Amino acid sequence: MKYSPEHAQVRCGFDVAEQDDRLYIACRVRDNGYGIAEPDKARLFTAFQRIESSNRDRQKGIGLGLVFVKIVAEKHGGMVEVASEPGKGSTFSILIPHLTERMASL
């Protein structure tokens, strides 16, 4: 919501995803906000980086939120993905291996 226009919709949900023959529990956060340009996506998960946006001056923060999300996901054997297009919003997905996948690796 922080990087979406006023009254934008933000939806959260969970599902099971399969990727590279592995099962994951996926938490997805989808908005219909400003979106993110392709060159900026690589910087999203870099500490102290903030993406230029039309509402940046109104937003507080130092650029660590997504860095922490990525660290936690990776510590659990998972990953974070983003799909976005300028003017069409973004979907952030946090994928954590399904318990059966984690048990098989022990």
What do these coordinates show?
- The protein is α+β, with helices and mostly antiparallel strands and 106 residues long.
- 20% of the residues lie in helices and 34% in strands.
- It has a four-stranded antiparallel sheet.
- A hairpin with a 2-residue loop joins strand 1 and strand 2.
- The longest helix has 11 residues, at 65-75.
- The chain is globular, with a radius of gyration of 15 Å.
| Rg measurement, Å | 15 Å
Secondary-structure-based class equals alpha+beta
Mean pLDDT: 82
Poorly predicted parts? none
Helix content: 10-25%
Element string (H = helix, E = strand) = EEHHEEH
Distance between the amino and carboxyl termini: 38 Å
Strands of the widest sheet, in order across it, are 1-2-4-3
Main sheet attributes: strand count, strand direction, barrel closure: 4 strands, antiparallel
The helix count comes to 3
Shape: globular
What percentage of amino acids are in beta strands? 25-35%
Keywords:
106 residues, alpha+beta, four-stranded antiparallel β-sheet, 3 helices, 4 strands
How would you summarize the topology of this molecule?
Layout: E1 10-19, E2 22-31, H1 38-41, H2 65-75, E3 79-85, E4 89-97, H3 99-104
Antiparallel strand pairs: 1-2, 2-4, 3-4
Give a short overview.
With 106 residues, the chain is α+β, with helices and mostly antiparallel strands. It has helices spanning 38-41, 65-75, 99-104; strands spanning 10-19, 22-31, 79-85, 89-97. The radius of gyration is 15 Å and the shape is globular.
